[in-house]
Amino acid sequence: MRKPLLEFTDRGIYCAAADVYLDPWKPVKKALISHGHSDHSRPGHGQYITHKRNIPIITHRLGALNAKGVEWDEPIHIRGVRFSFHPSGHIVGASQIRVEYQGEVWVFSGDYKTEDDGLSTPFEPIRCHTFITECTFGLPAFSWEPQAAVMESINTWWNEVRSAGRTAVLFAYSLGKAQRLLAHLDQSIGTVFTHGAIENMTGVVRQIKTLPPTRLITRKTTKKDLQGNLVLAPPSAHGSTWLRKMTPYETASASGWMAFRGARRRRAVDRGFVLSDHCDWSGLLKSIRATGAERVICTHGYTEIFARYLREKGFDARTEATQYEGEVAELAKSE
What we know:
With about 325 residues, the chain is an alpha/beta fold. It is about 20% helix and about 25% strand.
């Protein structure tokens, strides 16, 4: 029986024919990296190969690296295996990784979303025989509103908070979500202030994409400066002494998990906005169909439920355990 082109090992997803790993979670000699979130780009690899827009992000997070940046669809040949990177739409610089060998094509999705957020390079379905898909939100209950509608709700909330003489504090992941929000916040309402972790990461993304202005919160920033304005902060800042300077304030969280009833209460925020950098249920299904794949491997998320549904629809679907965490990975991290 022919050995699978990609195998799931204790170090990560391994291509034996090329002796390389895709998004490995333990140190390896050569790693192809889909994007800059910490569950997919980890320290300690001998060489990193990724899309060129991801280089500033991973070097900021991991330090000096032996890293090679490539263009979209630029072929990389390693021991007869052809690799290429294709947009996943997840965050800036995020890729799917296509692997072709002896007429067989596999695609590793990394993390992805199908809605064009106006900042990331939009998702591009890639034809393949086997598709490795995340299913962070692989339940029918997850169905996203269009980004424009969510942003209208967020801007309306900010305006209401400003009218009440308070500061609006919006929690969002420092890489990806924060910049997406910043790109669509209505700055005619007021000024956008940032926590240091978000300001630092936004500075990195500014090397790649143009973003509206922000003001870093420092020791010299006063309550009066912040009043009526909006503060972007990572989830890790919630409940910290850092927030005292914002008083009086109202809090909100922008996350796909806000779709769960009770999530806002559990996270002790005043408002919850459902905004995810991952596909919802229909986005996952649409994407899988667009690949034409006969085999689907489900990783990180509602894997068993999603794979079972795919099998009922005629796919050869199974699950594999990984150390990817999807949207959960960024919850407690400042960077």
